[in-house]
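Key idea: predict the complex, not the pieces.
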Amino acid sequence: MGFGFALGVFGGLILAHAAYATIQYRGMLKIVEEEFSGPPMNVVVELLLGLALCMWAGLAAPTKFLSILPDSDENRIVSLPTNLDFMIFNHRGRVFPSSDAELKLKSKS
Amino acid sequence: MAANEDSRSSDRKSADDSDDLPIFNAENLQSNMKSIYYSRTFLSIIGGVVAGIWGFTGLTGFVFYFLIMAVASLGLAAKAKFSVHTYFDSWNRILVDGVLGGLMSFVLFWTFAYDIVHIF
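Result:
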């Protein structure tokens, strides 16, 4: 975030300098009485550089994309309940002789 | 009988699956779209300034705008690591959304920069 923002500011400064250089170039053209037929080479390079920097900044500076799939790694809830130590899985049922196998054995004998 | 019932229920289940809308995390989808909107607005403003300084007039400027938006779409797809369906529900969100919305800011800043640099 900070890096992208700094790139954007730098790109903006480069664009401002390109604008200033173009204004000066036009002033020079006015003195030598020639027609404007496109910005000079250094301005073009500055424009492309500023555009590239600002494009990088514009793509990188906003928030990162977040996954929208409900079962992706970031959206999954994996925390166990915190009171696991207090859960009891014993109950009184185990004192009764209730399995089917035993009943069958008894009926056979 | 039981098997018959089972097959019917499985049929119904598969029909449900095909009818079911895919489930998205709407909050994250909205955040992603907002991120795209910010990127496009910023890039249309910057593109307008560049087009103005460069001295584009007429159709060339619009061609330049759509060129920038195409590059922006490519960049956004790269930001989504080209697995668009992880982050958006369709390709249109990346490729098309907000292209015409930024045109007005582009024209505004284009004329603004052109006036400052070339006319005044």
